[in-house]
């Protein structure tokens, strides 16, 4: 009789994190790691080689042909609609979490939380359920807090969030356009639209806002 198992791929551009994730799944024998990737190109290659049910992926993982973040997830969900996805991230920003939810990602684990959240998140992704680690759940609860004044919260589109994240992370408009496969004019328009909504006139103010909402840290782009 066949043994139940969930075949997964793990993606992160830090080898130490990959090792930690694999070690944390040692007590879950039904979860079988079929391969590890460090960018979106390698993810796509592994998905072509292996019939996997769940992808566990970092959110910010530059360098691949399909970008990272929202752009990468959109491509993967379009090409592999049955693939369960667990996102690991240090970007505990309400903007990013809202974007993930709008893309249908319902299993999110913050890297600031214990890795024990990964196994239940994988099981949830496999079964079409939801799982949020402690920090993610707290941020989402704050978003949904009925006492919050949403009128004061600028609402950026998913694409505007992605452009701002990449720009404050150090990429130029031309580089963002190349990674997201959009025109330079489109990227400039989305950046300017975000700045208008945020009432910022200078790039320095945009970076300051990104730090305040958790898109980046003072040390650079969060992983």
Automatic annotation (TrEMBL):
The modification 4-aspartylphosphate is found at residue 58. It holds the Pfam family Response_reg. PROSITE patterns: HTH_LUXR_1, HTH_LUXR_2, RESPONSE_REGULATORY. One of its GO terms (biological process) is regulation of DNA-templated transcription. Keywords: DNA-binding, Phosphoprotein. Residues 149-214 form the HTH luxR-type domain. InterPro entries: CheY-like_superfamily, NreC/VraR/RcsB-like_REC, Sig_transdc_resp-reg_C-effctor, Sig_transdc_resp-reg_receiver, Tscrpt_reg_LuxR_C, WalR-like, WH-like_DNA-bd_sf. It comes from Iodobacter fluviatilis. One of its GO terms (molecular function) is DNA binding. It comes from the Bacteria. Residues 7-126 form the Response regulatory domain. This is Capsular synthesis regulator component B.
